Amino acid sequence: MTTPANPQTALERAESLILEVPDYPSSGILFRDITPLLGDAAAFRATVDALIAPFEGQFDVVAGLEARGFLFASAAAYASGAGLMPVRKAGKLPRPAAKVDYALEYGVAVVEAHNDFPRGSRVLVIDDVLATGGTLVAAHALMAELGYEVAGTSVLFEIEDLGGRAALNDPQLHTVFHS
């Protein structure tokens, strides 16, 4: 594969690789398939770099939200030399230290995390999509409960008309792509 000449070109390519799949996983949903982006090394690298760039030197840990947020958070932690914290759905961790409930359109969900880092650790929270904001709001509450400082929030793709930015109310929110 040819490597683009500059990062902006790689980011433009990355955005073009996010496919829209109508009616998945259910009718009326427009799913963003990031698999082609992950398969393009230059686009993936540019995307990870763009996720962490505004926060360089300001975090010790990258928290990735289950499930696709793990993919970007892992790469971001490696690229920045930071630790990695998985934020999982309820029942997926062997020793959760804290959990937070949050509302979904169809019920309630729970996210959990370990307390493997010192209190006061600066955490960059990363997820793939910001839609209504519920998962990210819960992740922020979880970080506070664990005694960590949220250094910022970085998201691959924001669906602007679903109100997630307002729900999250994070002045440090950074999104790479928007709808």
From TrEMBL:
It comes from the Bacteria. Keywords: Cytoplasm, Glycosyltransferase, Purine salvage, Transferase. It catalyses: AMP + diphosphate = 5-phospho-alpha-D-ribose 1-diphosphate + adenine. It holds the Pfam family Pribosyltran. It is found in: Cytoplasm. One of its GO terms (molecular function) is adenine phosphoribosyltransferase activity. InterPro entries: Ade_phspho_trans, PRTase-like, PRTase_dom, UPRTase/APRTase. Residues 55-157 form the Phosphoribosyltransferase domain. Its EC number is 2.4.2.7. Gene3D superfamilies: 3.40.50.2020. Pathway: Purine metabolism; AMP biosynthesis via salvage pathway; AMP from adenine: step 1/1. Signal peptide: none annotated. SUPFAM superfamilies: PRTase-like. Homodimer. Belongs to the purine/pyrimidine phosphoribosyltransferase family. Catalyzes a salvage reaction resulting in the formation of AMP, that is energically less costly than de novo synthesis. This is Adenine phosphoribosyltransferase. The lineage of its organism: Bacteria, Bacillati, Actinomycetota, Actinomycetes, Micrococcales. The gene is apt.
